[in-house]
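Entry 14. Structure prediction run on the chain below.
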Amino acid sequence: MNWKRMQKIWAGEEPRSSQRYRTTDLAVEFPIGAAVVDVSDSGMGIESSHQLRVGASYVFRVQVGEESFGMPGKVEWCRFAGSNGTKGADPAAVYKAGVSFASGPAKQSWSSALERLVEAGIEPLAVQSAV
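Output returned:
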């Protein structure tokens, strides 16, 4: 986390530079299996039963309508979020992670796809103060 972002958090401001949108229906293929929980122009939030290595780079296969493209991303942070155990089953770990997208042609394709999702009615997440 950089110094400028920390200053925003301490001041009670929103540290993110891009609006985030909650999503449950975005198709993303990922080597270790993960669910996308929110997206922005610059990255996405994911949940996984595996701990991701901070700094690791992956290519995510994103499907938006008929369009499919590889999206290079880097794990910026990862933390243990709890477990999702159900009655009678062993609990499984749940990790939340933030992924930033690399610049380039794939990011331009993603930006266009996100614009179409917003036009189709994807809802932005409410801004929460960081405390």
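The chain has one domain: 17-119.
Filed with the rest of this week's runs.
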